[in-house]
């Protein structure tokens, strides 16, 4: 009988402890939920934006030579001779080795098709092109004209962009403007809600590099005469946006 009483007491103690632990867990959960709700209710999230129009300072274009001949070796040899002449002219304009990079090399058969759609090899085509990247935009017309005069017959689209160095110079100003834009919006919204800004909870930044302007080069332009090829870089847009979450009360 005494042993049974002890077991009963132990049973009730365990039940009591379980109830206490359950109540404590419920209380902690309620407090955490209340705090979470308060944080959500007492913040506003605002975006800010700033942009600047800038003149691009970098140009990229592809310059190549395409040659067809009866044999692959003849096509390759002719292409190599012309491409070496083109590269020599590119360097003569002041371009450095680091500004001239081989971008494409290819040798492939050229086919003829008869009435029965049977193909026969009539020769070979050899292609070689380099990508030119320069910040000397005033030199672009000379680069194109001298390349074509040396034998280049495949000029790709020219793209203009804003260099990383120039974007870094603009970054601080754009960030200040974007943050000021977000702050102004937040202050106006808080005032409309009858509250005030008390601090910043989180913030993030997203920047956009200068848009690339494309100039489609027409080989017929050079073939028409000796006039210099006109090139206009236009303007690019560099922008930055921020997302800021403010505390309000």
From TrEMBL:
InterPro entries: 26kDa_periplasmic_antigen, SIMPL/DUF541. Keywords: Membrane, Transmembrane, Transmembrane helix. PANTHER family: SLR1258 PROTEIN. GO terms for biological process: DNA damage response. The lineage of its organism: Archaea, Methanobacteriati, Methanobacteriota, Stenosarchaea group, Methanomicrobia. Pfam families: SIMPL (PF04402). The chain crosses the membrane at residues 12-31. This is Outer membrane protein.
């Amino acid at each position: 009988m005494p042993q049974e009483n002890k077991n009963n007491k132990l049973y009730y103690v365990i039940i009591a402890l379980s109830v206490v632990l359950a109540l404590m867990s419920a209380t902690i959960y309620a407090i955490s939920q209340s705090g979470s709700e308060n944080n959500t209710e007492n913040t506003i999230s605002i975006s800010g934006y700033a942009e600047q129009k800038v003149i691009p300072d970098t140009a990229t274009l592809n310059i190549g030579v395409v040659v067809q001949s009866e044999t692959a070796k003849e096509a390759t040899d002719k292409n190599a001779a012309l491409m070496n002449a083109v590269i020599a002219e590119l360097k003569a304009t002041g371009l450095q080795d680091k500004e001239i990079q081989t971008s494409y090399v290819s040798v492939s058969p050229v086919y003829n098709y008869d009435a029965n759609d049977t193909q026969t090899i009539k020769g070979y085509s050899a292609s070689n092109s380099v990508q030119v990247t320069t910040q000397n935009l005033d030199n672009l017309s000379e680069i194109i004209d001298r390349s074509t005069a040396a034998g280049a017959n495949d000029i790709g689209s020219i793209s203009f962009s804003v260099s990383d160095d120039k974007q870094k110079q603009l970054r601080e100003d754009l960030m200040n403007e974007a943050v000021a834009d977000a702050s102004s919006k937040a202050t106006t919204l808080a005032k409309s809600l009858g509250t005030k800004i008390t601090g910043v909870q989180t913030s993030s930044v997203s920047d956009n590099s200068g848009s690339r302007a494309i100039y489609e080069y027409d080989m017929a332009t050079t073939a028409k005469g000796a006039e210099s090829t006109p090139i206009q870089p236009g303007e690019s847009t560099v922008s930055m946006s921020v997302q800021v979450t403010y505390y309000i009360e």
